[in-house]
Design goal:
The complex is a heterodimer of chains A (398) and B (98).
Chain A: E1 12-19, E2 22-29, E3 36-41, E4 46-53, E5 56-66, E6 70-76, E7 116-118, E8 124-126, E9 131-137, E10 145-150, E11 153-157, E12 165-166, E13 186-192, E14 200-205, E15 208-212, E16 220-221, E17 243-248, E18 256-260, E19 264-267, E20 275-276, E21 285-291, E22 299-304, E23 319-322, E24 330-332, E25 350-352, E26 360-363, E27 369-372, E28 380-383, E29 389-397
Antiparallel strand pairs in A: 1-2, 1-29, 2-3, 4-5, 5-6, 7-8, 9-10, 10-11, 11-12, 13-14, 14-15, 15-16, 17-18, 18-19, 19-20, 21-22, 22-23, 23-24, 25-26, 26-27, 27-28
Chain B: E1 2-5, H1 8-14, E2 19-22, H2 30-40, E3 60-64, E4 67-68, H3 80-83, E5 89-93
Parallel strand pairs in B: 1-5
Antiparallel strand pairs in B: 1-2, 3-4, 3-5
Classes of the chains: A mainly beta (398), B alpha+beta (98).
Chain lengths: 398, 98
């Protein structure tokens, strides 16, 4: 779930695209037919995620990362025209008057001694910070933003990304039993509840879904009903499930949708229990899942052949839409390649806008960003040849 | 005056064009050079060595005077040519991944 309510009077749409080799900002007027492509920003760096603040659409946060040089946080206060590392504005001294460094925005340090999680072979493995997968700005305060990181943990900044503090109680929810998925042990989804500021859902691969009802002081696993027959020794284990993505509609925060490693799932009771809604999908493996901006029972997935073959079945790129909250799915193919297509769509690479009709967007590992301005009925590429797309977010802005 | 050459990505982050010149007090070692570098350019903290342990990141290497100094002790003196500024201290992204 990327945007929330039907926004009238919005004159521009801005898409934030994170790729393997830089970030791109795509803009259009509300017709969403002609797009300006701006970028690459931070060329050569892996841009895992960019997202704008719902409280101030010109406040953007970006995760810039590199296996070589680690994690950088970038912030824009002008809608992506210029960027700073928070705490080090351009033109200002990078040290305090007494010569002490100011910049702490790259510093993600686990609270206390983080201990171990499970490694791929089931042996204990120490927690090691690697990168930020997902940034989720507060719904109300532009200076507050959450970061989901690898190795899985949740951090929060309340000063615009200058400093970060872990919410360590999450790891107390059986963190010693979490394990990495193929992409690493990442906290990739953060859902904030508009109706209850104390409630947050997060999802980790491969640990599952966790919920707090007290703003992060305590957490518990909410995975009942998930079955991972080929991934876990106990298929019904409380934690350890490879959840790829969860989504909610802001008007109905008790209903969650999930694309698991295998299986598309649904919960109608704030994650207390889950049931499968894969229905007639050609395969129920995949990564992204999203909800229509104005129809809480309309959801989208992109079926992928299998966990070893990360491409669509039969070489046909098809988004599947259910208007019934799952089980009954229709293939959306108009404008999408229907032969010889072997790209993937990663978990953070789908988004919906809040215009009417609802726009749906997704990016591929082949560098295409596709848009539908009619809720998925037809599609057209905005751009075809970017680096592999990691993430897509969309904003409707005045 | 110590001369430090940064890899392209870190030059961009630090907003410098080519090599960086640093005053380093006391003995010139990897640690003292990196301390001075990070104090002058705090945006580089965490990009070359760990924020907490100060261990070199695995894909970063240190060269000087045609030697690989990556595995030298952080407090070992750097070559005189580096300490006198005759030769630069090179921070290099390891040649991994193509």
């Amino acid at each position: 779930m990327k945007t929330s309510k039907k926004e009238k009077g919005m004159s521009k749409v801005r898409i934030l695209v994170g790729t393997r080799k830089g970030a791109f900002v795509l803009t259009s007027d509300a017709k969403r037919q002609q797009w300006d492509i701006n970028g690459p920003h931070f060329g050569g760096w892996e841009m895992y995620h960019l997202k704008g603040s719902p409280a101030d659409p010109n406040r953007l946060y970006a995760s810039q990362t590199s296996s070589w040089f680690g994690q950088i946080i970038q912030r824009s206060d002008d809608g992506g025209k210029t960027w700073i590392q928070p705490g080090t504005p351009p033109g200002e001294p990078t040290t305090t008057p007494d010569g002490m460094p100011k910049g702490e925005s790259n510093k993600f340090v686990y609270d206390g001694v983080p201990g171990t999680h499970q490694w791929y072979d089931g042996t204990p493995h120490p927690w090691e910070f690697k990168r930020v997968w997902h940034l989720e700005p507060s719904l109300t305060d532009p200076d507050t933003v959450y970061a989901g990181v690898e190795d899985a943990a949740l951090f929060r900044s309340t000063d615009g990304g200058q400093t970060w503090q872990e919410l360590p109680e999450l790891r107390a929810a059986k963190g010693n039993l979490w394990q990495p998925g193929a992409g690493g042990m990442c906290l990739h989804t953060i859902l904030l509840d508009r109706s209850n500021p104390e409630r947050i859902f997060i999802a980790i691969s491969a640990a599952g879904v966790f919920r707090t009802d007290d703003a992060g002081k305590t957490w518990r696993p909410t995975n009942r009903g998930l079955k991972s027959q080929y991934e876990l020794p106990d298929p019904n284990a409380e934690v350890g499930h490879c959840v790829h993505r969860i989504a909610m509609h802001p008007s109905r925060p008790n209903v969650l949708f999930m694309q698991k490693h295998w299986d598309v799932m649904r919960s109608d009771d704030t994650g207390e229990s889950w049931h499968e809604v894969s229905g007639n999908l050609p395969t129920d493996f995949g990564f992204p899942i999203d909800v229509h901006a104005h129809e809480p029972e309309t959801i989208y997935v992109v079926p992928i052949k299998s966990d070893s073959e990360h491409y669509p079945p039969d070489g046909k790129l098809r988004v599947y839409r259910s208007r019934t909250g799952g089980n009954e799915w229709e293939a959306l193919t108009k404008g999408l390649p229907q032969q010889d297509c072997y790209v993937n769509v990663l978990r953070d690479a789908m988004a919906v806008d809040s215009l009417d009709p609802c726009g749906v967007y997704f990016g591929t590992t082949g560098g295409q960003v596709y848009a539908s301005v009619n809720a998925g009925d037809s599609w057209a590429p905005i751009v075809r040849d970017l680096p592999a797309v990691f993430s897509v977010e969309v904003q409707a802005v005045p | 005056m110590i001369r430090v050459v940064l890899p392209t990505h870190l030059r961009t982050l630090a907003r410098v064009d080519s090599e960086v010149k640093l005053d380093v007090e006391g003995q010139v070692t990897q640690r003292s050079v990196l301390d001075a570098l990070e104090a002058r350019y705090p945006m580089l903290r965490g990009t070359i060595r760990d924020q907490v342990t100060h261990q070199r990141r695995p894909f970063v290497r240190f060269f000087a005077c045609e030697q690989d100094l990556s595995h030298e002790a952080p407090d070992a003196p750097l070559p005189d040519a580096v300490a006198t500024g005759a030769e630069p201290f090179l921070i290099v992204g390891a040649m991994a991944g193509g």
